[in-house]
Amino acid sequence: MIRFDSVSKVYPRTNAPALREVxxxxxxxxxxxxxxxxxxxxxxxxxxxxREERCTHGTVHVLGKDLGQLSNWKVPQVRRQLGCVFQDFRxxxxxxxxxxxxxAMEVIRRPRAEIRKRVPWVLDLxxxxxxxxxxxxxxxxxxxxxxxxxxxxxxxxxxxxADEPTGNLDxxxxxxxxxxxxxxxxxxxxxxxxxxxxxxxxxxxxRVIELDKGRLVRDQHRGVYGYQN
Length: 229
Ligand SMILES: Nc1ncnc2c1ncn2[C@@H]1O[C@H](COP(=O)(O)OP(=O)(O)OP(=O)(O)O)[C@@H](O)[C@H]1O
Known about the structure:
Helix content is about 30%, strand content about 25%. By secondary structure, it is α/β, with parallel strands linked by helices. It has a six-stranded mixed beta sheet, with helices on both faces. The protein has a four-stranded antiparallel beta sheet with strand order 2-1-4-5, with helices on one face. It starts with a strand and ends in a 9-residue tail after the last strand. About 40% of the residues are buried. Bound molecules: adenosine-5'-triphosphate.
């Protein structure tokens, strides 16, 4: 699903690499927490997987494609198999809940009949049945993140990337979001989640990958958060 071979990333106009010779493999269906202090390279790792950035050295394979060799016009073909959730939700403020989710299907040109069927299905799945016509601004943070998860999952991606999805939520609301991600993972979707939330990592006991100053320093099966902020 994902393979990093000796991957380094140096951003332009910087000296210290954001990632240093990272090698790892993530198999289909895994649930992986990416941890490490601020600036350790978590978001950089995720940006390389999304091909928002290219690595400086090494190779990144995602879904069988070498992203370094992939021409720009082929990037959307890979991206449409990936779903993303962010700390700040990133919903379209002028569209309703249902329209936000439908939009993810429209951009990849799914047929209207399918959109009409799948949007209510996925909103039910995330526990937002009945709130289809609300605007994002009329929802709580937890509800907005549920919309974002619905939008990320509606096209049934092979891989779901979550960058601190509970960063703006209280502990109880966070547990609800994690239950949802766990459920999505159980459908076969691989989940990679960057987080600073020790409680969640310790509760879920999934694979934990830790970065420190761009280096992979820990790769633990059924791991714990394990470092101090
Ligand atoms: N676009 C960029 N240009 C230059 N340097 C960058 C850029 N993005 C990140 N960096 C640097 O790369 C390093 C890793 O940053 P990254 O955002 O990947 O860390 P992180 O682990 O996600 O941090 P956080 O937990 O705070 O989100 C940092 O030193 C950061 O300053």
